[in-house]
What we know:
With 585 residues, this protein is an alpha+beta fold. It has twelve helices and 30 strands. A hairpin with a 2-residue loop joins strand 28 (562-565) and strand 29. It starts with 8 loop residues before the first strand and ends with a strand.
Amino acid sequence: MLSSLGRPHLVVRLPGDEGDHHRAPVTGSGTTAVGPLMVAVQETKDGWAWSVVNTTDAPLAVTSVSLTWDAGPAGETPRFFRNGYQSWSRTGVAVLGVDTDPSRAMGAPSLVRGMHHADATVAAEGVLRSEMVTVLDLGVGDDLRLIGFLGGTEHDGTIRASLTDDRHVTLSAEAFFGGAVLAPAEERPLHVVTVVDGPRGSAPELLESWAARVGKAGMARTGAAFQVGWCSWYHYFHDISEDALRANLALAGDWPFEVFQLDDGYQADIGDWLRTNERFPSSLDALADDIEAAGVTPGIWLAPFLVGPDSEVATAHPDWIAPHTSGKPLIGMVNPGWGGQVHTLDTTIPEVLAHIEGVAAHLVDAGFPYLKLDFTYAPSMDGMFADPSRTPAQRVRAGMEAVRRGAGKKAFLLGCGLPLGVGVGIVDGMRIGADVAPWWEVQHDQWNPPGYLEVEPATRNAWVNTLTRAFMHRRLWLNDPDCVMLRTAETRMGPDAARAWALAVGASGGMALVSDDLALLGDGARELLDEVVCLGRIADDAARAGAAPRCDDLMSSAAPRLLSAGTVHLVGDPDDATAVVTRSS
C-alpha cells in the first residue's frame, strides 16, 4: 500500500450539526478526543484502521466520523470517479469544480436522494461524493490515487472531495452512522480505509485490486455459473399473467435458457408474496413445478422489505412498519403500478426478520431457488427504528441475512436496488446499473426527477454503469447489467441500439437475460442472443481466470466507450447508440 496523503484530521458530525462539526488532528499516539467521541486511528499494512468510543455517560447519536486530508494541488481538470450508492445509482467520472452533486438540483426529491445516497441530505456546495470507493486524478503529475473502504456491512462509507480557494483538493473518507446511537462507553470498530497510488491509466487495475480485497474479506459469493435466462418484466411489466407466462414457457425450449423468472405482477399485494392475484389462478408451487418440468430453473421476484398499506402483512402487523420522523409510516417507494406509496419494514425487529426468513424459505420450498430481491435499499431510509443503535447499513444487512438464512446456502440471490457494500457475501448476482427500457435515452413522457435523470430507466444509463462497474464482476458477485432487448416490435429502440446494448452485455461477461415476448422474436433475435451468450461466456471465463472486464477509458469520459474482457473488445458510442465487437487471438 502506498499512502502518500500523510496524517489525517478527524471530523465528527452529530444530528443537528450545521457546520459546527467537531474537528481535531490525529495525534501522535493515534487516539484523539473529537467532541464527545474518542477516535483511535492507526496506519497499518492494510490501510487506516480506526474505531470510535462514546466517552459520555449517556447514549449518543452519531451522524458520521471522517478522516480528512489535504490531497494536494489540482490542475485544470481534476477528475473524481463517483461510484453510486446502490444498484441503479449512476457511476462515472466527474470534474471537481465543474460538476455538481445531483442532490443540489433544484427540486431534487428527498425520496430519491434517500434512495441514491447513504446520506440523504443535500451535499455542500462544491462537494462531490462517491460511495465506498473512488479514484482521484488531481490533474498534475503522473499518479492516480484510490481511496476505498474495505467493507460496507457495519456502516456506509462515503468519500467526499472538493476544491479549496487555492485549488487544493480536500478529501474525506466518511463512516456514515445515520444517527445510530452508541451506548455509554461503547466502542465500535470502523471499516478500514485503504489509500493506494498508481500511475495514470491504472484506474481499472486499482479498482480491480480493491474489489478483490473487499470480496476476499467479505467472502463474496462469486462461484455461480454464468446465467442465461428469461424474465417477464420488460415486455409485460405489472400486467404479467399466468397465461402470458405459460405461453412464453411453451416457447422457451427453443432458446438456451437456464433460468425462467417471474417478475413483479403476480403477487396479491406488495408484501404478500406467497399469494397470487386473480391473473394467476395456479399456486406458486404449481407454477414452479411446471417451469422446472420444462427444464429450466424457476425464479421469482420480490421486494422483501416493502409492504403495501392494505396488504395482509401491514394489516396484521402495523407495528412492523418503521415510522418516519413525522410519525407517519416510512415510505420506501412510490410506484403508480402498485397504487402509490408503499411502506418499509423495520428490520431491527426480530419478528420482522423471522417473517422475512420465512417468506424466503417458503418460496425456495415451493420450488424457486432463484430469488430476485428488489428495492432492498428501503431499510436504509431515514426513519425511527425499534433499535436505534443500528446504522442504515446494518438495517439492510440484517434483512438480507434473513433472506439468505431462509433461502439457504444453495439458492441464487440477485440483489437489485441494493447498497453495494451491504451485498458482498450475501448475493450471488447484483444489478449494477439503471433499468433498461425499450428506448435508449430517457424519454420526455417518463418521470424525470431533477438531478437524477441518469438513474432513470433507459438503456443508455444501463450502458454507462455496465462499463464503469465492470471491475466488480467475479470479484464481488456476478454482475447483472440487466436484460438484453431483442424485439423489433413494441419498442422505441432501433436495431442498431438493440445490438449495441446486446454486445455490451456480452462483452461484460455478466448475466444474459431476455425479457421479450418470445412470440415476437424471429431468427435474427435468436442469432443475436447466441452471439451475446458466446461473447459472455468468453468474457466470463476470463473473469474467472482473474482478468476482470476492463473499461480502459474509465477516467477520461463521462460516457465510456471501451470495454475489454479476455479476447473480447467492445468499442461503442453511447451518443449514437452503436457498438462493434472484435476478437483478438
